[in-house]
Structures are given as structure tokens and as C-alpha cells.
Amino acid sequence: MIEAPALYPNMTVEANLKFYCRLYHKDYSSIDCYKEDLEVATYLKRKASKLSLGMKQRVGLFIALITSDEFILLDEPT
Description:
Number of strands: 0
Order of helices and strands: HHH
Number of domains: 1
Shape: globular
Low-confidence stretches: none
Structural class: mainly alpha
Mean pLDDT: 87
Largest sheet: none
């Protein structure tokens, strides 16, 4: 993931997540698995263009988690 994750700015966070689920043939239930852990639940209905850079990166991590099959390698996770 680069500094600014690839989110569609006119779509909500939830719509972006569902888009990536469809793109990677994943079930939408994976969204429910991580939304509380990543503290994204309150932002699901917000448009991606209205998010701060930190929240965009959190959504980018969320996308990586719901679309990966094996593992995720993080560089400087703190």
C-alpha cells in the first residue's frame, strides 16, 4: 500500500470495501469481521473523499486484510 490508498472518492467507505470484495471474489461477511477491530464502523457511510489521510490508510489496510489469502507483510506498521 502506498501513502494514499486507491479509493474511489465519490463512493462511501462501505461501497469501496464491497467493490474490492467483488473484485477479489470475497464474501461481504469479511467486512463485518474487521470493521470493529480497525475502528472503521463509524466511517462506513462517509465518502472516501471526506476522510483524513490516516483514515484512508486504515481503509487501505482494511482492503488488504479482506482481499488477502495468505498473509500481509507490513513495513513500519507503527
